[in-house]
Design goal:
This protein has 307 residues and is of the alpha+beta class. It has 8 helices and 16 strands.
């Protein structure tokens, strides 16, 4: 295991760590929608199959007697063909990152999901010695919005491949899943608010951490803004089911996050785990990153080579 600790950020009574469940690759054209490759390839260069380098980032938030994991990566139980298609590279895992911090999966009290796609919920389950998926975090309550749950249970032809039932159904069957009603926001634990925003999926949420005695705010943005390259408002994914809503959400939230100097946490940015929001003279938003190069000590080969 490489000698590197996950990046750390202090937020009032909370200690935050950005942790990685490894790397994977998705088609660059799909990741940037209508943005021409001549533009996105400058910031996210593609491999020979037109795929870009992406991280599977999660956020660990701890305070006295509480350990909350936001997102659950892709896991390590997927078939070989799946891992080949998506170029999965297990340079790290949630378990390894927790171990670097002297923790283990059974220490997690809550798992909060922005949505249930396989690259955000894949490590909710692991395989037991009978090759059956079982909950990875047996002592944790798992939180998802009801609209996202219904979307996952009843996918359409366009999003069906993104939902893998064995990632999350065993958690539900074990009685560990809390499905939060139709309200636009809920508070799984005091100081953490989950906001329904839609756009990427009908049940896409952001997760906002506000300490009791600090004016600072941190927001896990989910696939509202998957990477720092997606901060500019028009730069959205072809995967977004509600593209115009996604644009409107970004315009509203980026202004808010810049005004309150919020730290935003990306789910798929390989260059840095988090950033502040800036705005240039032309009115374009951009990422002001912290902890650049956070994954480089873990890489086994340089991009775009696969190990």
């Amino acid at each position: 295991m490489p000698d590197r600790l996950p990046p750390k950020y202090s937020l009032g009574e909370w200690t935050l760590h950005a942790i990685s469940d490894g790397l994977y690759r998705l088609d660059g054209g799909a990741m940037f929608g209508t943005i021409p490759k001549v533009l996105w390839d400058k910031v996210k260069p593609a491999d020979e199959r037109n795929r870009i380098d992406m991280c599977l980032s999660c956020l660990l938030a701890t305070r006295k007697n509480q350990a909350i994991l936001i997102e659950a990566g892709i896991g390590n139980k997927n078939p070989e063909k799946f891992e080949f298609i998506y170029g999965v590279d297990h340079i790290s895992s949630i378990d390894e990152e927790l171990a670097r911090l002297g923790m283990k999966p059974s220490d997690i009290n809550h798992v909060i999901l922005s949505h249930l796609h396989f690259d955000h919920a894949g490590s909710l389950t692991i395989l037991n010695d009978k090759n059956e998926p079982v909950p990875h975090f047996p002592n944790a309550r798992h939180h998802v919005h009801a609209i996202e749950w219904e979307t996952a249970l009843n996918p359409n032809l366009r999003n069906r491949a993104s939902y893998v039932t064995r990632d999350w159904m065993p958690v539900y069957e074990a009685g560990l899943m809390d499905i939060h009603g139709e309200e636009d926001e809920y508070e799984p634990v005091p100081g953490i608010r989950v906001d329904l925003v839609g756009g990427h999926t009908p049940g896409q949420c952001t997760i906002r951490i506000e300490p009791f005695e600090s004016g600072k705010v941190t927001v896990f943005v989910g696939d509202v803004i998957p990477t720092g390259a997606h901060v500019p408002i028009p730069w959205i994914m072809g995967y977004d089911l509600e593209p115009m809503k996604q644009v409107e959400i970004k315009e509203l939230l980026l202004s808010q996050w810049m005004d309150e100097n919020a730290l935003i946490v990306f789910p798929h940015e390989t260059r840095y785990p988090w950033a502040y929001v800036g705005k240039d003279d032309k009115g374009n938003y951009f990422a002001k990153p912290l902890d650049e190069g956070w994954l480089e000590p873990l890489r086994r080969v340089q991009w775009p080579t696969l190990p």
